[in-house]
Structures are given as C-alpha cells and as structure tokens.
Amino acid sequence: MIVPAEPLPAEPSPEWRAAATRSRELVVLTHGIGSTRLFLAPLAARLHAAGFAVRLYGYPSPWWSNATFGKRFAALLRRVAPGYERVHLVVHSMGGIVTRCALREELPPNLGRVVQIAPPNRGSHMATRLAVDSGHPVWDRLVVRPHRFLAPTLVELIDAPDSFVNRLGPVPPGIELGILAASRDRVLYPEQTHLEGARDHQTVEGWHTGILWKRETAELVARFLRTGAFYPQ
Question: Domain AB hydrolase-1 spans what residues (predicted)?
Fold first, then answer.
C-alpha cells in the first residue's frame, strides 16, 4: 500500500559508507501491495553501506494470493541462502504478510532475523474500506467491486476477525521478528501492526511508505538485524 510521503533523503552519510564491508550476511527486501522494488532502493543502499549484502525481491502484488507469493519467496530464500552465512528479511506493508506465509514453508537453516515495516498483521481498515461492501451503492460499484476484482490480495488484508491475515497465527518458534510502525500511518491503525510472538516493536515518525526513506529506519533495521533489538537492552 502506498500513500504520499516526504521526499527521498540524501545519500548515506560518510560514516555509513565507511562502515561498509564485504558482508557474508544478506538482507532480502520486498515491498507491499501496489508498490515496487524501487521504493526500497534507498533503504537497501543504506543497509549496504552499513555492511550488509542486499537483494530486492519484487512480485505482482495485487494478483493471486499471499500464500502463493509466500511459497515463491521461500523458494527464493532457499536458492540464495547457500552463498551466505545468514539471510535476513526486511519487508514492507503486505510484504510482511507474504513473509509470514513464507515462514510457514521450508526455510533455509541459516535464516536470520526479520524486520516488518508498517505491516498489516491484524488487517487494515483501509483494505476493508476498499474491498468490503459498505452499503453505499455508488462507492461499492465504483470502488469496492473493481478493487475486489483487480486486487484479490487486498481482500486478504481486511481487518475482519476471520480474514486471511487474522488466521495466520503468531510468529513461528525460533524466528526473531521485529516490527516498525509509522506514527502517522493513513493505511493502518497502530494496533494493526502488532503480532503475537514479535521480539520488539517500535514506532518511527512518518507515513506508511515515507518511513522507508528515513535514516532512522535504516539505523533501527540494521541494529535489529545485528542484535535482535531496535534499542540496546
């Protein structure tokens, strides 16, 4: 899901560039619904400057299902994992749900930590507004029905108690997962990002997509991937 956000930030600072080393740890990043790998490029650049190898993973997000994309994502991880000591995941919005589906599949033994950024773990009120009949004939005909037809994955993100996303369950045992929420998210309520079994949860000032482009986000992500916490314990 994409909402307007602040402009892209400047390039990583000299200090971040100086920290870059040839890494044996890979970070695989993936995006949310209606988005693209390009939105993750600034974050990927900062993580690379912080010393991680990076790879951007894209998929046709509106179509098929989160489960299908999760199987494909898990297959990608199994293919790339042998070349690295650890493989971490950094995922945005619906990419967090794709990842939760992937975590139910066969995973490489060297899977590292997972950071979800603005994930609809308990569904999204905006997805419900766009994909569930409201009783208003014009809105339902012009907005809801086209979204249900063109974006079946959106239907899986509604915040009903029995929706697909709310049936996925907690973080699987042995997975260290951290969550970053956006303080002014127009797509998700803060409580909709929470997930049972998550190791850490913090909030970053900004919009749903805009926090991807903040230096603070990259620093928090890098710290969690290294230590398992966003701030020192």
Answer: 27-176
